[in-house]
UniProtKB/TrEMBL annotation:
Keyword terms of this UniProt record: Ribonucleoprotein, Ribosomal protein
Stored HAMAP family: Ribosomal_bL33 (MF_00294)
The UniProt record lists the keyword Glycoprotein: no
Ranges in coiled-coil conformation: none
GO cellular component: cytoplasm; ribonucleoprotein complex; ribosome
Protein's name in the database: Large ribosomal subunit protein bL33
GO MF terms, alphabetically ordered: structural constituent of ribosome
Organism: Haploplasma axanthum (Acholeplasma axanthum)
Entry-linked InterPro entries: Ribosomal_bL33, Ribosomal_bL33_sf, Ribosomal_zn-bd
Similarity comment: family membership: Belongs to the bacterial ribosomal protein bL33 family.
BP GO terms, sorted: translation
UniProt entry tagged with the keyword Membrane: no
Lineage of producing organism: Bacteria, Bacillati, Mycoplasmatota, Mollicutes, Acholeplasmatales
Length: 49
């Protein structure tokens, strides 16, 4: 079963992206390098609560 998650920029804390993940195979939080439109650069985005 896949669950929706929201990705938050680590620098400006804006909620830019939504994605899905499989809770059975990925127990820890997602960390993806994505482009932040507010920072205007690629930053690390983490899964929010």
């Amino acid at each position: 079963m896949r669950e929706k998650v929201i990705l938050v920029c680590t620098e400006c804390l804006s909620r830019n992206y939504t994605t899905t993940k499989n809770k059975q195979t990925q127990k820890d939080r997602l960390e993806i390098s994505k482009f932040c439109s507010k920072c205007n650069k690629h930053t690390l985005h983490k899964e929010s609560k």
